[in-house]
Specification:
mainly alpha
Length: about 200
């Protein structure tokens, strides 16, 4: 009979998420994961099967606890016409908050897409699904903001907005001003730039 689990799985996954988010999958060492989670190697492997299993759990937590709450207002029914503007102003504030993990580390999934782990088909699919979820949510926001515009124009605007979000996430670690500038560009496209 195996030993009963004596730790909080969600807390351990959230702690591991911080390590993966800051360091990336490849650079996240098992000793660093042990230190962050308070678990020893055997407990990590027993609970998650492998470092990769822990990473997969961290990615799901990232989607559920970080990404989807920010998109929630864009998924309401109906979507408020200013929801997409609030999304971008909130994201801009998060990426401009020096010392906070989003400002210092960008997006876990955008970072993973440029790392060796992205060679894995399952990781590529998660990143593609995330981008599609982001684009769909932004599309709903653009549709609500500009209901009288042509559908093709709204689709192009949503595509541009999604590309600017991904650009901001990719840039924030190395050029924070350009990252926030990308989001300012989106706000300008949405007719909400500060004057």
């Amino acid at each position: 009979m195996g030993r009963a689990q004596t730790f909080d799985t969600h807390r351990a996954v959230r702690a591991a998420l911080g390590v993966f988010w800051r360091s990336g999958y490849e650079a996240a060492s098992v000793p660093a994961l042990e230190e962050a989670t308070g678990l020893n190697r055997s407990s990590i492997y027993h609970a998650f099967g492998s470092k990769r299993g822990l990473f997969d759990a961290a990615v799901q937590t990232y989607l559920d606890d970080v990404v989807r709450p920010r998109l929630r207002e864009l998924l309401a029914d109906p979507v408020d016409p200013d929801a997409v503007v609030r999304y971008f102003t909130g994201l801009r504030a998060a990426l401009g908050a020096t010392g906070e993990i989003q400002a210092d580390s960008g997006c876990l999934l955008v970072n993973a897409s440029g790392a060796p782990i992205a060679r894995d088909a399952a990781v590529r699919q998660v990143v593609a699904d995330y981008r599609a979820e982001l684009r769909a949510a932004l599309g709903r926001g653009v549709d609500a903001r500009f209901p009288d515009r042509d559908a093709a124009e709204r689709a192009r605007l949503a595509d541009l907005c999604a590309a600017l979000v991904v650009s901001a996430f990719a840039l924030v670690r190395v050029d924070p001003a350009s990252a926030t500038g990308a989001l300012d560009g989106a706000l300008e496209l949405l007719g909400a730039a500060e004057r």
